[in-house]
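Appendix B, Record 12. Input sequence as logged:
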Amino acid sequence: MKLIVGLGNPGVIYSHNRHNIGFMCLNCLARKHGIRLARKQGYARIGEGEINGVKVVLARPQTMMNRSGHSVSRLVSRYKISPEDLIIIQDDLDLPLGKIRIRQGGRSAGHKGIESIIEELGNTDFIRVRVGIGRPDLMDNAAEKDAEVINHVLGDFKASENRVVVGVKIRVAEAILCLIDEGLTAAMNRYN
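Logged structural output:
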């Protein structure tokens, strides 16, 4: 069984934020495979089903992003998921908009949701599908830089970015299918 988690913040006011690209990609994957995220389990909205014969649990944590680990750890425990069967879809400031990077393990690179998951699991060996949201143009002052980054990740995608966002959601769904069918190395070679 695979546990596939899209990271984001719950609530309508956050639904189109860059920080919620994980939710958006997971929703696309769920629609493509006819899985409804209708149940509440482990502080998350979940849906269970199969993708190409493999049992999956899709989850959107209903904690805020920075507390994602509370939800993920409960789901990992409930479904007895090993680190290599946990796939996290996250936003990434350091990748240009629409780029995907898949990897297993490593540090959080400052992503608070990933930091929370690592802290709760005590493990870094899960798979991450990082989805680029780009970086804002930053000011010179450190306080202004922090505020600009926060405004960027919690800001909605611009109308001019929507075509790229639609495309990347489809590519992430394809990449996850590749991860399930062909494994990590094949997915990294094809989508990184």
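The mean pLDDT is 95.
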